[in-house]
């Protein structure tokens, strides 16, 4: 058995009552969710190191917006200095080094999300883009950003008037054969690039997406360019650029999001990332793709890794939120009979509000860990030129998976953070609970790197293509095997709920999800076809199928994927952990299924009251069964106390002592208001 002594034991205290009830060792569960002991060790090393560094000390009062940006950049520089992943490891295999980088990102995100986003955009999104879209001549930029940390980058896609619809962006890059340069231009404010992270104050380069135009006036669609923005020595922006800061946001204010306008700004011809298309010195456009939309597709596919990073970060935010709320619920008592006040955690309502999210946090972490491995293996093979069977189909399937799972995870965390805040009552509203910061720093993830509502439509598109293929050719393009069952669609749709069925079973859960996907897929297809028959274009017809169809379909597929991957991993976990993991799996599955009862009845899978009652009874039973386990589960999910940074969720469980310490040490807590003279009614003289 692995030595887990590098994970510090938890302090003894009021939470022991519940900790003793757990059927498993929380450190083993932690390792099972992390999947790799070296990565778990790395995470603890990062947390312990930063805890000792005053630059990372938490502030009891939110610093000014500008100060948050300064601190975030200083912290990023310091993290680079610590060299947590030595250069030799970075030069190792793609999969291993990416996993290490992702772990660093997760560890930092739990501590200060602004810093991890700065790092993710400034170093990893940029360097990944160079690897996937650039060629030999761009490797110096890769070295400078990834290995030497000499430049900090940004990623400029969004414009003021166009975000999700990238095709209509209007920044241009016109080739000038005389100077062998591209001239970047912003026609008007609506085409200004905006929201670009790191651009407002700090980045030295940006990866710019602009419409490529050749000297013959022909437009070739969006392409990516490496564009210098600031002098690295002075951080002065170069002439020909108008760069500004976006101003205060409702979260992640440590990131300097900026806007930029280009005024006939020249860059060398070689700064075009030219893996898929190039312009010769004379100005002739050459592309390995005939269709410009495929070039954009290849460029944007590069976002998958970033979206996986967002999902990993989401798992950590959810872990922290539920850890705070559950520890609070185990130490806070309210009401009761015969002088025995009851801990909140023992109320059925409180369990129902929180335990589904605890189960989701565990299921998502195991799922994303496993999915990331599959993803990285495919990319590694493909980069190394090793043949991957059905590579382009696998890429499409992965894209569909990411497109529905990033929305599922990010939305779930947002809902969880709000529920956890409310579950901690008024004290949850203190900044010191950390629930507010977790929620507001997480919030933009539902919008950036693909707005959730728009992104999830892409999973629906892929599923509909598979439906068509299954019903016409009797086969599907699903190299990862996630929808092979669609070839049995007709048989699956004949299933009905039989009263008395044991719903707390893997078979029931998975077969019911398959039924739901088949049913909603068929409904979506029929609706889409009927809109086309009415004479609508494909675009218009799709828009008419979004609500109750496409959107539901995408959510169902995402939930199914989480369950499917978790179930596969479950078999490999320690025997001691299996009972609790199985219960968490069932709870997440049935709790999610509860949200789809309408479709089960609408489609005739269920009739009468049995199905709904069985599902809901099982959810409540599972909540009760998990009462003794859940504190141990959140111990496994939680980071160290320093990282969790919550007066309500400290692992010692000394809720009221910790609250007193925090309230009593608030700066100025006991002082008379400095502005007292401005507000008191000074009695007027009667003389
Ligand atoms: C904190 C933060 C950081 C960011 N960082 C970067 C960055 O570094 N680089 C960068 O380039 N961008 C960045 N962005 C921008 C982000 O990527 C965009 O906001 C995002 O792509 C959505 O585009 P939009 O804001 O133009 O929204 P829109 O596309 O205008 O969407 C607005 C709303 O309309 C809905 N909608 C749009 N189209 C449809 C449709 N067809 N059917 C139904 N509904 C639809 C959407 O769901 C959304 O709710 C960042 C944003 C934020 C908030």
The mean pLDDT is 95
CATH topology group of the largest domain: Butyryl-CoA Dehydrogenase, subunit A, domain 3
The CATH class of the largest domain: Mainly Alpha
Give the number of domains: 2
CATH homologous superfamily (4th level) name of the largest domain? Butyryl-CoA Dehydrogenase, subunit A, domain 3
Determine the number of helices (DSSP H or I, runs of at least 4 residues).
25
Range of strand content: 5-15%
Spell out which ligands are present.
flavin-adenine dinucleotide
Sheet bearing the most strands, described? 6 strands, mixed
Based on DSSP secondary structure assignment, what is the total number of beta strands? 13
Low-confidence stretches: none
- The helix content is 40-55%
N-end to C-end Cα span: 89 Å
Principal-axis shape equals globular
Write the CATH architecture name of the largest domain.
Up-down Bundle
Structural class: alpha+beta
Alpha-carbon Rg, integer: 27 Å
Structure characterization notes:
The structure is a single chain. By secondary structure, the protein is of the alpha+beta class. The protein folds into two domains: 13-20 and 302-479 and 501-653, Butyryl-CoA Dehydrogenase, subunit A, domain 3 (Up-down Bundle), CATH 1.20.140; 151-293, Butyryl-CoA Dehydrogenase, subunit A, domain 2 (Beta Barrel), CATH 2.40.110.10. It has 25 helices and 13 strands. The strands form four sheets. Strands 1, 2, 3, 5, 6 and 9 form a six-stranded mixed beta sheet that branches. Strands 4-8-7 form a three-stranded antiparallel beta sheet, with no helix packed on it. A two-stranded antiparallel sheet has the order 10-11. Helix 6 (94-111) runs antiparallel to helix 11. It is globular. The protein starts with 15 loop residues before the first helix and ends in an 8-residue tail after the last helix. The mean pLDDT is 95. The site of flavin-adenine dinucleotide has 18 residues, from strand 1, strand 4 and helix 14. It is found in: Peroxisome. Belongs to the acyl-CoA oxidase family. It comes from Bombyx mandarina (Wild silk moth).
């Amino acid at each position: 058995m692995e030595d887990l002594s590098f994970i510090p034991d938890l302090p003894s205290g009021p939470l022991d009552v519940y900790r003793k009830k757990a059927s498993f060792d929380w450190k083993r569960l932690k390792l099972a969710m992390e999947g790799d002991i070296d990565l778990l060790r790395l995470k603890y090393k990062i947390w312990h190191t930063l805890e000792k560094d005053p630059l990372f000390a938490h502030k009891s009062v939110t610093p000014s917006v500008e100060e948050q940006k300064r601190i975030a950049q200083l912290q990023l520089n310091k993290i680079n200095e610590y060299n947590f992943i030595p250069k030799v490891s970075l030069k190792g295999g793609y999969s291993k080094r990416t996993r290490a980088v992702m772990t660093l990102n997760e560890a930092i995100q739990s501590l200060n999300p602004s810093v991890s986003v700065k790092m993710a955009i400034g170093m990893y999104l940029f360097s990944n883009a160079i690897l996937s879209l650039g060629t030999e001549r761009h490797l110096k930029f890769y070295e400078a950003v990834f290995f030497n940390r000499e430049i900090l980058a940004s990623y400029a896609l969004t414009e003021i008037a166009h975000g999700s619809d990238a095709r209509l962006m209007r920044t241009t890059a016109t080739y000038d054969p005389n100077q062998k340069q591209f001239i970047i231009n912003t026609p008007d404010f609506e085409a200004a690039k905006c929201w670009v992270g790191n651009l407002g104050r700090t980045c030295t380069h940006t990866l710019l997406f602009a419409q490529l135009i050749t000297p013959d006036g022909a437009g070739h669609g969006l392409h990516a360019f490496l564009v210098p923005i600031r002098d690295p020595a002075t951080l002065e922006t170069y002439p020909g650029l108008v760069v500004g800061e976006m101003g205060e946001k409702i979260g992640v204010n440590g990131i300097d999001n900026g806007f930029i306008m280009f005024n006939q700004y020249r860059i060398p011809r070689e700064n075009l990332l030219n893996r898929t298309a190039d312009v010769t010195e004379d100005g002739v456009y050459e592309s390995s793709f005939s269709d410009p939309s495929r070039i954009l597709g290849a460029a944007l596919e590069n976002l998958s890794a970033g979206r996986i990073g967002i999902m990993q970060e989401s798992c950590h935010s959810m872990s922290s939120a539920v850890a705070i709320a559950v520890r609070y619920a185990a130490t806070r008592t309210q009401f009761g009979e015969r002088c025995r006040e009851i801990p909140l955690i023992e109320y059925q309502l409180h369990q129902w509000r929180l335990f589904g999210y605890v189960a989701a946090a565990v299921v998502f972490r195991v799922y994303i860990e496993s999915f990331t491995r599959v993803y990285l293996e495919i990319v590694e093979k493909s980069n190394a030129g090793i043949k991957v069977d059905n590579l382009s189909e696998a890429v499409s399937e992965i894209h569909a998976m990411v497109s529905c799972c990033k929305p599922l995870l990010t939305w779930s965390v947002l809902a969880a953070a709000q529920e956890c805040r409310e579950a901690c009552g008024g004290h949850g509203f203190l900044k010191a609970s950390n629930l507010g910061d977790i929620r507001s720093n997480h919030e933009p993830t539902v919008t950036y790197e693909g707005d959730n509502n728009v992104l999830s439509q892409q999973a629906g598109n892929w599923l509909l293509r598979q439906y068509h293929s299954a019903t016409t050719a009797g086969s599907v393009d699903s190299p990862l095997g996630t929808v092979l069952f669609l070839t049995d669609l007709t048989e699956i749709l004949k299933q009905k709920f039989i009263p008395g069925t044991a719903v707390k079973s893997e078979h029931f859960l998975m077969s019911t999800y398959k039924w739901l996907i088949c049913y909603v897929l068929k409904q979506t297809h029929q609706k889409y076809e009927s809109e086309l028959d009415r004479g609508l274009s494909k675009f218009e017809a799709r828009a008419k199928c979004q609500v109750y169809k496409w959107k539901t379909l995408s959510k169902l597929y995402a939930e199914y994927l989480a369950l499917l991957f978790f179930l596969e991993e479950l078999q490999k976990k320690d025997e001691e952990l299996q009972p609790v993991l199985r219960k968490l799996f069932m709870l997440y599955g049935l709790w999610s299924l509860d949200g789809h009862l309408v479709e089960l009845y609408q489609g005739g899978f269920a009739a009468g009251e049995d199905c709904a009652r069985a599902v809901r009874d099982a959810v409540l039973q599972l909540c009760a069964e998990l009462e003794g386990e859940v504190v141990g589960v959140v111990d496994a999910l939680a980071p160290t106390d320093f990282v969790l940074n919550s007066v309500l969720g400290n692992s010692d469980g000394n809720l009221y002592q910790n609250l007193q310490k925090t309230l009593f040490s608030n700066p100025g807590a006991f002082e008379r208001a400095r502005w007292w003279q401005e507000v008191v009614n000074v009695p007027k003289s009667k003389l």
